Amino acid sequence: MIVYKFGDGSGTMPPDLSPFVVKLETWLRLSGIPYEGRIGNLNAMPKKKLPVAEIDGVTICDSSAIISYLQRRYPNALDDARLDPQRRAQSAAIKALFETHLYFVTVYFRWAVESNMEIYKPILSDYARLTAPPPVRPLVGALAALLMPVIRRKVLRQTWEQGTGRHSYDEIAQMGIEGWQAVADLLGDQPFLLGDEPTTIDATGFSWVHTTVAHPFESPVRDFVSQHAALMAYHERIAERCWPDLTRAARR
């Protein structure tokens, strides 16, 4: 199986730029399913998004779709068979919190905050250089300078249309903190989000904690998560299980 991903060409956002890629890779590692990771060209993918998996000639887009496919294919893969209907509902609700609510909060702080955007621009340029055809690579820097403002306006327009971008910086920070407090309340004193052993939602949970605290974008939301003992212990617990190649510095 090949997993196409953004990667971390800059070395500043291990193991990947995208929480959805980190989610899939974490789930694969928790499931013990081997895979080969490759840098994927976003614009060449069927749905213009990553991750994408190639499995025995079948191309599957979207992290959740890939996980569902592999859960049907591999009997021993990490799944939610032991969860009762109430726990399954909790899993679906917290997934929506991560992948919709906190997603747009994350997008806002990456793209709307000038100091964070100055960090993000060279990272995105590195990715563009890696995926560009060899003859074009020397031109990526100049092209990025022209295209980045256009892409940024498009992304910020999406946050506005979704609703998050209509709020102030402080209001969005509070929205993010309240979302993370809900995650922490669900976690409580459990080792994992839904009990003593990991389930599918823990791949999602780890990916969002990790990309919030380990990626170099400052925000009050990042401060809240990085200073929350239970959330960071949860992150470390999963990192020790399936990301031994991440350094301690990258984990925190």
Description:
60% of the residues lie in helices and 6% in strands. The protein has 252 residues and is α+β, with helices and mostly antiparallel strands. It has a single domain (2-251), classed as Up-down Bundle (Glutathione S-transferase Yfyf (Class Pi), Chain A, domain 2), CATH 1.20.1050.10. Strand 1 (2-5), helix 1 (19-31) and strand 2 form a beta-alpha-beta unit. The model is unreliable at 248-252 (pLDDT under 50).
Number of domains: 1
Strand line-up across the major sheet: 2-1-3-4
Total helical segments: 10
Number of strands: 4
Which oligomeric form is depicted? single chain
Question: What characteristics describe this protein?
Answer:
alpha+beta; 6% strand; four-stranded mixed beta sheet; 252 residues; Glutathione S-transferase Yfyf (Class Pi), Chain A, domain 2; single chain
Please outline what is shown here.
This protein has 252 residues and is α+β, with helices and mostly antiparallel strands.
